[in-house]
Amino acid sequence: MSTKRAFWVLASPFAWALHRVGWCSFTHVNVCHGARHPDRFDALWQHRWYGEPIPTLPAEVGLCGIPYETAVAEGTVTFVDPCTMSRITFDRDPYDRFADQWTVLLAGSTSIPAAHVRQAYEWVCAVFGDSFETRSIPTTASIV
């Protein structure tokens, strides 16, 4: 158990009591609940609040409540909405050590909300590293 998770487990009774009288937000109650029950929140939540590493990108992630299928292949990370077939694609050349920035390509028949793009980028940064941060990107393909 990480120290952040242990802190929130110990702070749980205080957060719940303070929330009952209106002095603590429900976000902190959720953080305490997530510390005690890690299986009830997704991996990105665990990474944000407790610093838990995300070893691989799941095959399906929720972006603002909408399920997106994911695919990873040679520096390209794609999120696909199966209902509208809209795609959010992040690309970085894994073989060029000077290509440090992620580029984004939006494609599909409908517009894609900016909140979905932002949360998809949070997934990419949590798993593969932010722009100018070097982490290895697997070169094996998983096709959607």
Structure description:
- With 144 residues, the chain is of the alpha+beta class.
- It has two domains: 3-50, no CATH class; 60-128, no CATH class.
- The chain contains four helices and five strands, in the order H-H-H-E-E-E-E-E-H.
- Strand 1 and strand 2 form a beta hairpin.
- Helix 1 (3-20) packs across helix 2.
- The radius of gyration is 18 Å and the shape is globular.
Descriptive tags:
single chain, 144 residues, 2 domains
Can you describe this structure in just a few lines?
With 144 residues, the protein is an alpha+beta fold. It has 4 helices and 5 strands.
Distance between the termini: 35 Å
**Domain module count:** 2
How would you characterize the largest beta sheet?
Answer: 5 strands, antiparallel
Helix content: 25-40%
Mean pLDDT: 84
Residue runs with pLDDT of under 50 for 5 or more positions: none
Instruction: Please indicate the percent range of residues in DSSP E strands (runs of 2 or more).
Output: 15-25%
Strand tally: 5
What is the radius of gyration computed over CA atoms, rounded to a whole number of angstroms? 18 Å
Major β-sheet strand ordering: 1-2-3-4-5
Overall body shape: globular
**In terms of structural class, how would the helical and strand content be classed?**
alpha+beta
Determine the number of helices (DSSP H or I, runs of at least 4 residues): 4
Q: Could you state the order of secondary-structure elements as H and E? A: HHHEEEEEH
